[in-house]
Amino acid sequence: MQDVSKATQNNPPMPRNSEEKGILERLDSGEVVVGDGSFLITLEKRGYVKAGLWTPEAVLEHPNAVRQLHMEFLRAGSNVMQTFTFSASEDNMESEWKDVNAAACDLAREVAGEGDALVAGGLCQTSMYKHHKDEARIKKLFQLQLEVFAQKNVDFLIAEYFEHAEEAAWAVEVLKESGKPVAATMCIGPEGDMHDVTPGDCAVKLVKAGATIVGVNCRFGPETSLRTIKLMKEGLRASGLEAHLMVQSLGFHTPDCGKGGFVDLPEYPFGMLRLMSEVLVLSHCDKMQTAVMNNYGTVL
Known about the structure:
With 300 residues, this protein is of the alpha/beta class. The protein has ten helices and eight strands. An eight-stranded mixed sheet has the order 1-8-7-6-5-4-3-2. Helix 6 packs across helix 7 (135-151), helix 7 crosses helix 8 and helix 9 (199-209) crosses helix 10 (222-238).
């Protein structure tokens, strides 16, 4: 694998205010950090993303739409601009993946510069893991995205939307090579991951792999997500570990969902007409607070 610490020799990094507090400095001081979210769902509703495919070609094809949504979140109070790079790996996007990752970093940094916001480079689970658990090949996919994030000098990294703790831990192990803080979230509920690893054990695996922020995202509503986070917190404490916590829930309740969350509903993906948004809350284990933001830029 390429040494990502040397990647910036090939491309100049995005400018960043050297006096800006990093993610861990903010969290360690007790600040509740609010991020953005719901790019795929919101842009699909606006006609820029194809439902069911959920890949971010809009970064190249409709950059103004992506920039506008970043700006809406910034104006609503977001402290983190996450790159719109969900599923933007080589196995999902073939030849476009590198350009999408680079352009997404530039858009996020551009908007972050309009306020006091950080840029997080984000990657998610691969389509490969469910078919064959080839650790070396899967880690190579993560490494390729990380090289772009390193070139663009994002402020920290997020491994998000993982159904399996094992693959999430692989992603963390790759991302931590950058030397930047790593957050990792699972798209799970209180029942745990798809291999029946409990939320507490998932959190332990992620922290041991190198994550300093752990949590859940995308599949369940606020109440269910917070129950899952509580189980993660208890698991960490029982193991003598500490981490900051991250919650990125849906903006609607999910009492009718099974283990897989809202994607298992019969209405998904084409019948989901309810308002859908996400919340991203980062806080310390002992000082968890919540903030909710809908996808039209209003803090609730």
